[in-house]
Amino acid sequence: LWIFGYGSLVWRPGFEFTSRKVGFIRGYSRRFWQGDTFHRGSEKTPGRVVTLLEDCGACTWGVAYEVRGEQIAASLEYLNMREAVLGGYDTKLVKFHPQEKDAEEPILALVYIATPQNPSYLGPASEEDIAAQIIVSSGCAGHNIEYLLRLADFMRYFCPQAEDKHLFSIEEALISILPCLYYTEESLEET
What we know:
Blueprint: E1 2-5, E2 19-36, E3 47-66, H1 70-85, E4 90-98, E5 107-113, H2 127-135, E6 138-139, E7 142-143, H3 144-158, H4 165-190
Parallel strand pairs: 1-5
Antiparallel strand pairs: 1-3, 2-3, 2-4, 4-5, 6-7
Helix pairs in contact: 2-4, 3-4
């Protein structure tokens, strides 16, 4: 079984796997439209994490993990709790295209996707509003800022040829807001 990750799974799968490949799936765009009140946020201040939006002309880069034997049941049990129960994601099978030059045919992979029917689904917002929400959110897996920056770093270092305007626009908005917060905190400490 192959499992495709496009959010925190790219750096923290949390399950045993046999091999991993960087690559992409077609027909989907990555969006920070899913609310998170557990891993990267709380009930009071929900975080924003990514989900996939059907988009016939787009592709989303990430990592596919191969799980075999006993790894299959253990990884599915873990992911069903992490993504489906806590995060409200549905599962789909998609064609994964490995990045390798000599890659074979696409691989069928399982992916978790939050839909608008999900109770934690937040939907679209401006990059500035999403960045502002990310800045104030933190959950049991860490701060929401870390989630955004790790995902942006993954794209830069492992998929430098790929564009993800949504992701990088939110990162830019976050960076433009942070100096203001730092300056305000410094000013408050001095008074």
